[in-house]
Amino acid sequence: MSGAPIDVLKRIPLFAELDDDELERVARLFKERRFSEGETIIQQGSGAAAFFVIDSGDATVFVDGKERRVLKPGERQQ
Q: Which H or E run includes 10?
């Protein structure tokens, strides 16, 4: 699947001030991906640049092998 659901992007503060046309353009830049429980999404030190939006479920953040926090839909990692 490609693109992100507009209703999901509207709930993200970063995109809150965009109008519908702007949101549609941003949505086309996303690729929807689904991950299995326990699957690694991105690994520290991999050098990858990505932007992830959690629509459902949660993601555990590990730094130097230690659990730091669990991200839920709508939350952001700082």
A: helix 6-10
Length of the chain: 78
Using a cut of 0.85, tell me whether the model's pTM lies above it: no
Q: Structure tokens of 42?
A: 């991105």
Check: CB of residue 60 under 8 Å from CB of residue 77. no
23: pLDDT strictly greater than 80 = yes
Q: What are phi and psi of 73, to 5 degrees?
A: -50, 130
Residue with tokens 């993200």: 12
Task: Assess contact for 5 and 30: CB atoms under 8 A.
Answer: no
Both structure tokens of 33? 């991906």
Q: Express each pLDDT in 25-37 by its tens digit.
A: 999 988 888 999 9
Q: What angle do CA 11, 13, 16 make, to 5 degrees?
A: 75
